[in-house]
Amino acid sequence: METKKFDIVKLLKIVIPAILAIIIANIAPPEDLTVESMRFAGLFVCMIIWMVLNVWPDFVITLVGLTACVIWKVADFGTVFAPFSGTSVWLVIGAFGISAGVAKSGLLKRLSYMILSVFPENFKGQVLALFSAGFVISPLIPSLNAKAAILAPFSAQVSESLGYEKGSKGARGLYGAVVIITTIVGMAFFSGAVPVATLIGMMPDEQAAGMHWMSWFSGTWLWMVVIMVLSFLAIIALYNPKSTNTAAVETGLAKTQLAALGKMTKVEKITAVLLVAALIGWMTTAVTGINATLVSMIVLLLMFITGVLKGPDFKNSIAWSSVVFIGTVYTLASMLSKMGWSSYLAKVLAPVLAPVASNIWILIPVICIVVYLMRILVVSQTAAITIIWAIFGGLCSQYGIHAFPILFSGYCATLCWHYAGNNVTVATCLAATNDKMVSFKDTFQMNIVYMVVNLIACMASIPVWKLLGYSCSSSACSWTLPPPCLSLSPSLCR
Description:
Elements: H1 8-25, H2 35-53, H3 58-71, H4 77-80, H5 87-105, H6 107-116, H7 123-137, H8 144-161, H9 169-184, H10 194-202, H11 205-208, H12 213-239, H13 246-249, H14 253-260, H15 266-283, H16 285-288, H17 292-306, H18 311-317, H19 320-338, H20 341-357, H21 360-374, H22 381-398, H23 403-414, H24 424-432, H25 444-467
Helix pairs in contact: 1-2, 2-3, 3-19, 5-10, 5-15, 5-17, 5-19, 6-7, 6-14, 7-8, 7-9, 7-12, 8-9, 8-24, 9-12, 10-19, 10-23, 12-25, 15-17, 19-22, 20-22, 21-23, 21-25, 22-23, 23-25
């Protein structure tokens, strides 16, 4: 029987950050901080280093760190694991469950083929078709990987039917379209990407309370438009092939795939009704007073009652490790404030970062560029945005900048992919195409395009964010009023 060799390198990766945590914890706390604050700082630094070094899966690292918080008496169990009794984690569970039901029904595949079939079967037409299909299904399903699993295989089939060889301009262009529309655009919708729930969970309670479907979209719609328009133009400019296999084009691939699905099934019809109901419920939470979590749970239960979703589907289709990880991230974000670190870092960093934090026109490009560089070393997207929030969160609030621009622009910047495994959904797209379209090195040019386009899109969104009251001229902003999108007025600043 083969025995595993003792991995001294991995042991050092575990032990050295742990020793560093103990050293930090035993430093005399500065003014305004406590012994518990220093213990948390030690554990926080240890967790971040473990994530950077990819010692264990992220959810294991955060669980270890938060368990240590309880054992080390940083805070009691109820405080540390409070997010798991709140609404945010259950929103994620509900979203995952709905995604599982929709994926099982086949509805999104049918809808995608319906959209794809109406566009010309040439390079430009199919890029536009993929963008259109992705745009329509983005708000309907929060799982980025599920959307990639639907559209990426189809793009591979289109690429083959058009006669594009692996790594050719045409293949790279179609793949780039799939990546942009499945990996990126979902962030524009409250219901379009699970990380949205993560970001809202990191916000201060009074700001998170104003976030629902419409308030989120009011801050993201222009970013989405710029991303889609500029990405489309870039793909056409960089990857439009000189010739197309016209014989293959005439086969009508999307129409053939749609016909193969047959008539719409009873399960699909029920799923469509429930999905529309969920979308309406999410969009009208500010009017009805029914929060997004309750809407998700009602729709999920109806899926069980109607037979769209069964117990094994729910059990096997939900990424429970992601649920655990998201809940622990909420704790990390809240503990930074509860332990006094947000205000302390704001005070300490003010002399250096005040010119940046006080001006949103400087802040946003700085955050994007710092994250792009950070991601060369930091594999975990959540680790990257957590670091950004720790540095800028407390300081920016003093200058009247809402958490939304910081967290949204920062997380969108983390969506870049410098190397394989840097972005899970990009890797999913590669896997879903069976490596028929491109190799990873073929995607790097599109990564550069995305970084530039995202920076432009975030900068273009600043006037909208200012209109919504997310950047105020004074630190006396109030975000405890009704959601800014309802008033579209900078009068939120008092």
